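WARN  no MSA supplied for this record, continuing single-sequence
INFO  ligand: zinc ion
INFO  echoing inputs
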Amino acid sequence: MAADRRIVIENCAIATVDASDTEYPDGYLVIAGNRVESLGPGRAPEGLENVVRRIDATGHLLTPGLVNTHHHYYQWITRGLATDHNLFDWLVALYPTWARIDEPMVYAAARGSLAMMARGGVTTAMDHHYVYPRGSGDLSGAIIRAAHETGVRFTLARGSMDRGEKDGGLPPDFAVEALDDALAATEETVRRHHDASFGAMTQVAVAPCSPFSVSTELMREGAELARRLGVRLHTHGSETVEEEKFCHELFGMGPTDYFESTGWLGEDVWMAHCVHMNDSDITAFARTGTGVAHCPSSNARLAAGIARVPDLLAAGVPVGLGVDGTASNESGELHTELRNALLINRLGAHKEAALTARQALRLGTYGGAQVLGRAAETGSLEPGKLADLVLWKLDTLAHASIADPVTALVLGAAAPVTASFVNGEQIVADGRLLTVDEDEIARATRDEARRLARIAARD
Ligand SMILES: [Zn+2]
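INFO  complex generated
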């Protein structure tokens, strides 16, 4: 949108998620071009010029757009499998199928994953993709194309695996890359797609899969590569007790010490899960500014445990929320993770003091932006930041009688999205995506899921 064109949103509750958690029970926000220009209580100022649209948002809550910090899009076409397994058994059951993915499958799965999140209020998304079978096509390019078409801000975490079964890892040998190939392809992806500028729509991170599927050399050289190129680092960490045991047996230390020894703690790093952390692990994350992607539904689905989110937050660790791959979280939604984060953490040691509704909203917005290194640009509603924002409809049967709008959003049923904006451009209207055809995507993902199942069954 041209820099001088304005959109005015009025008559809604606003949760800014700024540093002081400023809220307006009845306020306005002005978008100018791709930025938030002003916001506050009451009606928008008189005399604004070039107002191309005025939205009466009565009955709505306006929040920053949601930020997803951990996902694996390709899993969209392997949902509903190995439903009663823990992480390692689930991985061993699914790797042979995942090893057969190709570019059309990954493109369809990425479109499905992105569409599901975007229509539920996600404005900044990421994909941790780490399965690159030989000859499978330009998988990274297909994922980035899908994100561009959906219209969300996007980080591709270019993953890799080089520890196959013959080296004591979990993935089959034909699904892993050689160390040098993985590093070269990752560097090429950064050079082709990473945009470091303010408001970038595409960024790339270096993201070897996990300690149990990646060699120590790939961890170490991946960290060096990311720092040489000036991009962020992402991986899975401390997800299960089995992983902890694996690290002790193989490396003679726990996952956090292993990460530190390979250059993997730092403010340019964020790690998925971080469930099995002791006090000194949490201190190490806080000391180094390492971020965490908390994935409550996936952790529950795979019986991994409850991450110590209240302790991480109290120590000052940046924490965002993640859907995780949809083979371990079939819903693929992020807005419902606000609720799950709050509920699951109350089952942990801190009970009812674990997380408030406001903290859950912060995890899903500002916390996510922090973890992705984008907090100066998005994640809160403040003048000068990008106009990435969502209008949640809270005046229907599901929410109208809930006392407080933020509580309604977090603890109520999944709230309908009346409008979602990225860069001041509307991508969702009345729960439907404006950028892509959901029904066509549903058909394509079903067809590609069936094609993958047929190919995998032949093995
Ligand atoms: Zn994951």
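The domain at 66-371 is CATH 3.20.20.140 (TIM Barrel).
INFO  checksum written, moving to next record
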